[in-house]
């Protein structure tokens, strides 16, 4: 599949939880470096905040872990991959793959390809909602493009979706950033 030089790619993963509105990850599109390759996603840096505010913003909420198949669909937590093309050439569609690590192995999630626009100079938006996750695990994804002649090629770089919950009763993990304590006088 060939994507025209003006194509852009936007990827975002967000938690889809019925109790909170969907909050996409901020992204900024970049033009493709050459005519035959899709643009790589780029993430905007978050503005500097006070350390306590930054730590509070990074806290993952407590929640149920494990298989969600017993829950009604509208109560499941999901990862949603989104991407946009500015134009397409001979595009049959896309498959989405998921792995437990950046190196894989990866499993194809889409039973049928997400249909593409064929050949088009118009912008098209696509998404895939993965409800089969364990909300307490991180996952890695990539999107594969399929041309109308059946050629498959990796359309996106591999990208990470952070855990949406932490086990109930667990201690919050702030990563390497520790909130600063006021200096004792």
Secondary structure elements and pairings:
Layout: E1 27-28, E2 42-43, H1 51-58, E3 62-63, E4 79-85, E5 88-99, E6 106-108, E7 114-120, E8 124-130, E9 139-147, E10 152-154, E11 159-161, E12 166-167
CATH architecture: Sandwich
CATH topology type: Immunoglobulin-like
Q: How would you classify the helix and strand content by structural class?
A: mainly beta
Biggest sheet overview: 6 strands, antiparallel
Q: Are there runs of 5+ residues with pLDDT below 50, and where?
A: 1-56, 176-185
Cα-based radius of gyration, to the nearest Å: 19 Å
The tally of structural domains comes to: 1
- The CATH class turns out to be Mainly Beta
Order of H and E elements: EEHEEEEEEEEEE
Approximate strand percentage: 25-35%
| Assembly classification | single chain
- The total of helices stands at 1
Helix content: under 10%
Described by the principal axes of the CA atoms, the overall outline is elongated
* Number of DSSP-assigned strands: 12
CATH superfamily: Immunoglobulins
């Amino acid at each position: 599949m060939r994507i025209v030089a003006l194509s852009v790619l936007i990827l975002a993963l967000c938690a889809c939880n019925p109790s909170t509105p969907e909050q996409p990850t901020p992204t900024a599109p970049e033009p493709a470096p050459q005519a035959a390759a899709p643009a790589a996603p780029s993430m905007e840096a978050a503005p500097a905040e006070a350390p306590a505010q930054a730590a509070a913003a990074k806290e993952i909420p407590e929640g149920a872990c494990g298989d969600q198949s017993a829950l009604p669909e509208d109560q499941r937590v999901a990862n949603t991959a989104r991407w946009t093309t500015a134009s397409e050439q001979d595009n049959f569609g896309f498959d989405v793959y998921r792995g437990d690590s950046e190196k894989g192995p990866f499993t194809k999630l889409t039973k049928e390809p997400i249909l593409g626009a064929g050949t088009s100079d118009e912008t098209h938006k696509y998404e895939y909602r993965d409800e089969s996750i364990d909300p307490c695990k991180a996952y890695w994804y990539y999107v594969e493009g399929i041309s109308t002649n059946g050629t498959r090629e990796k359309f996106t770089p591999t990208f990470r979706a952070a855990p949406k919950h932490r086990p109930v009763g667990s201690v919050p993990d702030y990563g390497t950033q520790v909130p600063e304590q006021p200096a004792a006088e």
